[in-house]
């Protein structure tokens, strides 16, 4: 039996309200043969009927798919289970509240087939809401994975607005990546810093950002095609300032997973740079927080949108500061792991 080219991976926790619509959107990919893709739903210890609904929907829609149970709480655990089980050479991350648009798989495969050194492809994400949306949402839509990727050092411009770039930050929702490099890194000993769900003590997001930088460290490029689209369904309770504050804090905490990729480099001396310590990184984040605070105290320099975004950046900084203090030893170990870069034997060029 021929293996699928791409695996659509849905990591879910209590997603019974939207999982059916998510799968129906996948079944609506009528411009591509179904043997080219499979669907894996990883239920991360849900307490509702998510698994039951997913299994029956897969059967009803005649999709090549299966439901797996991952009892270890934490999205990255569900994610890594999917990476382990996937048959495709590519994995698309489709959250349980993401509805992919027609052409999603077709256009994604086109980019990867044409550019073998592209490691990740992002999608154009839009909000799907059935309730009024607050004015401030448009200012922070990227935090809700309702925007397009941020690509830098663009090297190729294609027709239709597609681009190939040297670096990029691609949200997990709607992203697609090559599986083999990640598996090789894990086999070589790489472990995600953002590896648990901390519940009330500390909520962390950012495994997608960490994956971006891991791919970058391997020399892969990033791509975006505006024809690759998803609609992201967001519940009313998530469109509140209270939730946004918690989200910004968790994103700041999760950003620490990507930190070392940005400030470490091959170092042949017997000593480690002071910048490679949690103390130095803590001071740099405190400095950033104070700068943002001072900027916020001069309202005449900022319009309403800038003041609002400044607030979210300060909250993000506090999330990073708190996590460094709570996990300083683990953070230092992560810095050393990235600095050693033992998995870079698998660089694409």
Descriptive tags:
349 residues; alpha/beta; ten-stranded mixed sheet; 11 helices; 39% helix; 19% strand; globular
Q: What does this protein look like?
A:
The chain has 349 residues and is an alpha/beta fold. The protein contains eleven helices and ten strands. The chain starts with 5 loop residues before the first strand and ends in a 9-residue tail after the last helix. Strands 1, 2, 3, 4, 5, 6, 7, 8, 9 and 10 form a ten-stranded mixed β-sheet that branches. Strand 2 (37-43), helix 2 (50-60) and strand 3 form a beta-alpha-beta unit. The radius of gyration is 20 Å and the shape is globular. Helix 1 (19-27) runs parallel beside helix 2 (50-60) and helix 7 (241-254) packs across helix 10 (304-326). The longest helix has 23 residues, at 304-326.
């Amino acid at each position: 039996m021929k293996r699928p080219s791409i695996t659509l991976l849905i990591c879910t926790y209590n997603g019974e309200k939207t999982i059916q619509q998510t799968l129906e959107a996948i079944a609506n990919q009528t411009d591509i043969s179904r043997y080219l893709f499979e669907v894996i739903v990883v239920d991360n210890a849900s307490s509702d009927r998510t698994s039951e609904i997913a299994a029956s929907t897969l059967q009803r829609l005649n999709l090549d798919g299966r439901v797996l149970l991952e009892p270890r709480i934490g999205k990255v655990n569900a994610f890594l289970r999917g990476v382990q089980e996937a048959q495709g050479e590519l994995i698309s991350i489709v959250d349980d509240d993401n509805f992919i648009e027609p052409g999603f798989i077709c256009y994604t495969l086109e980019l990867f087939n044409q550019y073998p050194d592209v490691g990740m492809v992002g999608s154009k994400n839009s909000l799907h809401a059935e309730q009024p949306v607050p004015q401030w949402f448009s200012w922070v839509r990227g935090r809700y994975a309702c925007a397009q990727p941020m690509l830098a050092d663009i090297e190729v411009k294609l027709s239709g607005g597609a681009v190939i770039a040297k670096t990029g930050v691609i949200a997990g929702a709607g992203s697609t990546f090559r599986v083999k490099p990640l598996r090789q890194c894990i086999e070589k000993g790489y472990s995600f810093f953002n590896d648990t769900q901390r519940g009330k003590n500390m909520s962390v997001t950012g495994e997608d950002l960490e994956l971006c930088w891991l791919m970058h460290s391997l020399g892969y490029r990033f791509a975006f095609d505006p024809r690759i689209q998803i609609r992201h369904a967001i519940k009313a309770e998530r469109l509140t300032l209270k939730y946004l504050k918690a989200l910004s804090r968790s994103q700041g905490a999760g950003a620490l997973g990507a930190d070392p990729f940005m400030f470490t480099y091959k170092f042949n001396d017997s000593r480690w740079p002071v910048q490679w310590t949690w103390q130095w990184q803590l001071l740099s984040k405190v400095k950033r927080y104070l700068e943002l605070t001072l900027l916020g105290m001069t309202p005449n320099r900022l319009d309403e949108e800038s003041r609002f975004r400044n607030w979210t950046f300060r909250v993000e900084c506090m999330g990073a500061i708190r996590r460094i203090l709570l996990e300083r030893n683990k953070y230092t170990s992560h810095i050393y792991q990235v600095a050693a870069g033992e998995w870079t034997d698998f660089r694409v060029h």
